[in-house]
Amino acid sequence: MSTHLQAVRGMNDLLPAQATLWQRVESVLSDVIMAYGFQEIRLPLLESTALFARAIGEVTDIVEKEMYTFADRHGESLTLRPEGTAGCVRAVLEHGMLHHQVHKLFYQGAMFRYERPQKGRYRQFHQFGCEVFGLPGPDIDAELILASARCWRMLGVDAHLRLEINSLGDIAARQRYRQHLVEYLQRHRELLDEDSLRRLEHNPLRVLDSKHPPMQEMLAAAPRLLDHIDDAAREHFESLCALLRLAGIEPCLNPRLVRGLDYYNRSVFEWVTTALGAQGTVCAGGRYDGLVEQLGGAATPAVGMAIGLERLVLLMETMQGGEEVAQADVIFLGQGERFTQLALPLAERLRDGLPGVRVLLAWGGGGFKSQFRKADRSGARCALILGEQEIEEGRVGIKWLREDREQIQVTQEELVDHLRVTLAW
Ligand code: ATP
Ligand code: MG
């Protein structure tokens, strides 16, 4: 056995310097989405394999070749979730939540797909997902897209993301279109790559998704699904576009947008960027009105989206540069036993009196010079100095490290009230 223990390929550690940005992204996303009335649902990472095969579709990238599937100790086939929608539908069905009720749910966490790791594509990655049950749209489709647009604005990446939308119509129209498409693709069979030939049999719409360069011209001239959808679906799509324009979002029609999962119908959309190379889709979603029924529930209109957090964070880093984030707001400097005996309870009093303020103690001794270096590295705004003289006099020195403010001393009793005022400046 190798003596070097390493993380599993494609599964990343997030070190503290990166985790701070992740915390900000996660809290902005959940704050924004809760402002639209969404509530959090927390779901297991493991589900029965059958759930994904039934929900996502047998002939999809995910089910064919990307799932982490294994037998547990009793031989039951389990799969690490490759996406969140299937588990979410399973949960709302299992808990009987869908009887003529509307639910707006969000979740976040790790997803697993066995893919070739590269920039923006990993084997463990994270999604922030939203699902709405019980509303047929297109108003809710528009609201979901507006919520995502608000997330981009709050995170400062709105200028780098473009909305692409399409309509997949309803099942009957898709069946009719499928025939036209297969005939067309058969006529150009010699251009198809191996993947596309296989999909031609079982899932021809996915051929439209192919990035294989020699096929691009032929695909651009293929019959368009949008030209075959029924009036009701067309009306739905046109109202969605109109609602988006009313709200100041110009949707860009992409007639080849079909999405990788089988369960979508009518509105589908993606937010894409050109800043991340081939892995340019940061968020993807759409309606899936048939899925609840397909999984054994009563017919229930539904729409959802998932944001790929790694790609969103990458986009922020690419566009905004990494940011240095402070570890603390204030730091106690001093050394020796008397310092410890004083600073430890005083720091507790600060945390009691000033919730949210991050208090650090410069453990490890060293002279004041090296302690000030520690203070600087911590990013703290001010150092609270407890040298021998201060301790003797029952006082604390306050030195502002990043602002042009006078160094002063206060009594230990005054410290909490003083900082409450001065840290707010
Ligand atoms: P792609 O075409 O890039 O493989 P997908 O259609 O498989 O994407 P979805 O299943 O729609 O992706 O997942 C929604 C979002 O999750 C994607 O738009 C992307 O941001 C993110 N995502 C999907 N797979 C990965 C992965 N392996 N690593 C990192 N992020 C991913
Ligand atoms: Mg994929």
* Largest sheet strand order: 1-5-6-11-10-9-7-8
Report the radius of gyration as a whole number of Å: 27 Å
Largest sheet: 8 strands, mixed
The helix fraction, in percent, is 25-40%
Which CATH C-level class of the largest domain is it? Alpha Beta
Could you say which overall geometry the principal axes of the C-alpha atoms support?
Answer: elongated
Describe the structure concisely.
By secondary structure, the chain is of the alpha+beta class.
What attributes does this structure have?
425 residues; 16 strands; Rossmann fold; BirA Bifunctional Protein, domain 2; binds adenosine-5'-triphosphate; elongated; eight-stranded mixed beta sheet; binds magnesium ion; alpha+beta; 2 domains; five-stranded mixed beta sheet
Describe the protein:
The protein starts with 15 loop residues before the first helix and ends with a helix. It has two domains: 16-170 and 229-320, BirA Bifunctional Protein, domain 2 (2-Layer Sandwich), CATH 3.30.930.10; 330-422, Anticodon-binding domain (Rossmann fold), CATH 3.40.50.800. It has 425 residues and is an alpha+beta fold. The radius of gyration is 27 Å and the shape is elongated. The strands form three sheets. It has an eight-stranded mixed beta sheet with strand order 1-5-6-11-10-9-7-8. It has 15 helices and 16 strands. Bound molecules: adenosine-5'-triphosphate and magnesium ion.
